[in-house]
């Protein structure tokens, strides 16, 4: 029945087949079922960072001629790769083969004179290109192909999902459409590198590294860009051994605590970004949060950025998630679907509050996959037993050791389909004893809750912390209700799938579209009394107010 549905309604099947082949052939960086060697997280990070340092961002006139543009740039050295994208204007990302080419380009670039306004003469790698003489617009416009930086519209997603041939195919389609593209990933590393240039005005040997969903392989197009100012390299240079009886130390300013040092550093970097960071707007310094941060928009790339410092554990969490994402091709497909499902039903939000976060949802999926029989993912404790001396990692007294070479972990023998896993995920958490149990990916089994928060997910590295401390009882209940409802929809569907000609959404589409889940007969839904709904609303408002001062709760 399903292949027939596909043939009837989808003329673009060849393209779909090609995409599927492309996907199954695997990707060394993000992992898949094939056993081609997978790169370590640190190797990917270093390669991308070096690539970004050879890259520039150029705001271009709309009528630019690509060939002439590249010819102009190649006067400064060979161009390795480039792409264009649109975001309030046309932009080009150009990666040179050598770093010197960037300096050469900067040397012929002038600071604009803006009439009555004055410019701060900061030589960044973000340029503005102007044409000396105007060219015939229509003849040249067509030559530029823009890379898309945003996720598909709900309508397009709906069409794609309805055209898929199975629920498994739907989950893989959603992953393919929402995952970060090569270009978007490059733009993320480039943005960090541009911010690093600003921070380097104060701390010449600093590094600004992306973490979170931009690098952990679970990022959706449009997700925020979490970055961390790494000053550890500065200390390393002074740690070189010297001979003789003399020991030189830098004269430094001392402050009462590590936290005060972080606040001071972020305060000046925030000020710099605000005062002379090209394209950085809406800079907010949220220094009293548990994890102090500077939040701003990077206008040219369109990214909402959160810059933190002294946040090495979060980078290690990103590495751990990257490993889990690369171990089995089902992991990312399932996480993306659960994240999209949660977003579609407003279980998650971009505003901090009493809702579940994407990070918590990812932990729940990992935990669920550790509980399968045979397990699809190993526990963190097991990954620790595989570690060798070089993997040893202690951060602020916390043991963050685990094996970092992906190829040393045996693939799972579990062959369950994505359709089954999605249904079982909803069933598992629809019936989970949240009132007494804690979710723990370190041991891969439920533990008694050490404290009374409605949802308890143990922080894998700072094990006394709960990463979902912010979640209210009413938000957890909403999650449980929706999980049960979704399990029920998938279960019903398995028995009685709508006919292809009825054009009814099915499978994942039926779970994602709010209009569709709203169609579930009311008798199947537990409608809450008005008093409870108002109480939930008040809870959410109260907690979102409280969260505003601690925007990065639990980190
Ligand atoms: P999205 O931005 O929602 O796509 O996902 P994300 O994983 O990037 O989450 P977020 O931007 O909220 O946080 C960035 C990273 O910070 C996460 O990936 C985690 O590594 C870390 N993090 C976020 N929240 C917590 C938390 O409550 N506890 C701990 N320990 N780390 C957290
Ligand atoms: Mg993020």
Question: Share of helix among residues?
Answer: 40-55%
Could you report the average pLDDT, rounded to the nearest whole number? 85
- Given the helix and strand composition, which structural class is it? alpha+beta
Strand order in the sheet with the most strands = 5-6-9-8-7
Shape: globular
| Number of helical regions | 20
Bound molecules: guanosine-5'-triphosphate, magnesium ion
Q: What would you say this structure looks like, in words?
A:
The protein is of the alpha+beta class. Helices cover 42% and strands 11% of the residues. The chain is built from 20 helices and 13 strands. It has helices at residues 2-9, 13-24, 41-53, 66-73, 100-107, 137-141, 154-163, 167-178, 182-199, 232-238, 258-276, 312-327, 329-344, 358-370, 380-385, 418-430, 473-495, 507-512, 514-517, 530-547; strands at residues 55-60, 79-86, 90-96, 126-128, 207-211, 225-230, 280-286, 293-298, 303-309, 394-395, 398-399, 437-438, 447-448. α7 (154-163) runs antiparallel to α8 and α13 (329-344) packs across α14 (358-370). Residues 211-213, 216, 219, 223-224, 226, 314, 317-318, 357-359, 459, 467, 553-555 line the site of guanosine-5'-triphosphate (GTP).
């Amino acid at each position: 029945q399903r292949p027939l549905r596909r043939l009837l309604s989808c003329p673009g099947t060849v393209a779909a087949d090609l995409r599927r082949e492309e996907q199954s052939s695997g990707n060394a960086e993000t992992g898949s079922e094939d056993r081609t060697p997978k790169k370590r997280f640190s190797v990917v990070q270093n390669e991308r960072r070096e690539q970004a340092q050879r890259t520039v961002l150029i705001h271009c006139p709309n009528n630019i001629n690509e060939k002439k543009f590249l010819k102009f740039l190649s006067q400064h050295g060979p161009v390795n790769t480039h792409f264009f994208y649109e975001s309030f204007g046309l932009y080009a990302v150009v990666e040179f083969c050598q770093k010197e080419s960037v300096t050469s380009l900067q040397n012929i670039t002038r600071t604009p004179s803006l009439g009555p306004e004055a410019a701060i003469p900061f030589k960044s790698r973000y340029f503005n290109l102007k044409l000396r003489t105007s060219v015939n617009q229509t003849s040249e416009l067509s030559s530029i192909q823009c890379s898309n930086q945003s996720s598909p519209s709900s309508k397009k997603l709906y069409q794609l999902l309805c055209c898929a041939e199975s629920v498994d195919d739907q989950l893989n389609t959603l992953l393919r459409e929402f995952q970060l593209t090569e270009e978007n990933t490059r733009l993320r590393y480039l943005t960090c590198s541009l911010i690093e240039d600003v921070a380097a005005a104060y701390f010449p040997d600093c590094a600004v590294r992306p973490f979170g969903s931009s690098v952990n392989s679970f990022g959706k197009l449009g997700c925020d860009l979490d970055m961390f100012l790494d000053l550890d390299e500065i200390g390393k240079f002074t740690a070189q051994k010297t001979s003789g009886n003399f020991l030189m130390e830098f004269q430094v300013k001392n402050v009462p605590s590590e936290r005060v040092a972080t606040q001071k550093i972020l305060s000046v970097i925030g000020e710099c970004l605000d005062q002379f960071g090209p394209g950085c707007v809406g800079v907010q310094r949220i220094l009293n949060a548990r994890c102090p941060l500077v939040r701003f928009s990077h206008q040219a790339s369109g990214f909402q950025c959160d810059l933190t410092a002294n946040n090495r554990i979060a980078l290690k969490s990103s590495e751990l998630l990257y490993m889990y994402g690369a171990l089995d091709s089902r992991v990312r497909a399932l996480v993306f679907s659960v994240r999209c499902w949660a977003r579609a039903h407003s279980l998650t939000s971009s505003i901090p509050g009493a809702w579940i976060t994407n990070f918590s949802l990812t932990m729940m999926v990992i935990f669920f996959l550790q509980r399968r029989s045979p397990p699809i993912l190993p526990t963190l404790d097991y990954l620790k037993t595989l570690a060798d001396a070089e993997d040893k990692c202690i951060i602020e007294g916390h043991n963050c050791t685990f094996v970092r070479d992906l190829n040393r972990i045996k693939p799972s023998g579990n062959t369950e389909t994505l359709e089954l896993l999605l249904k079982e995920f909803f069933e598992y958490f629809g019936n989970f004893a949240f009132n007494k149990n804690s979710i723990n990916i370190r041991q891969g089994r439920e533990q008694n809750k050490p404290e009374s928060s409605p949802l308890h997910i143990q922080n894998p590295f700072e094990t006394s912390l709960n990463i979902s401390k912010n979640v209210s009882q009413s938000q957890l209940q909403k999650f449980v209700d929706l999980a049960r409802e979704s399990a029920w929809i998938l279960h019903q569907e398995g028995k009685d799938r709508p006919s292809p000609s009825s054009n009814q959404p099915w499978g994942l589409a039926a779970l994602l579209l709010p209009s569709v889940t709203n169609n579930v007969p009311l008798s199947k839904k537990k409608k809450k009394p008005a008093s409870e709904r108002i109480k939930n609303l008040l809870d959410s408002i109260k907690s979102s107010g409280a969260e505003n001062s601690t925007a990065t709760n639990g980190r």
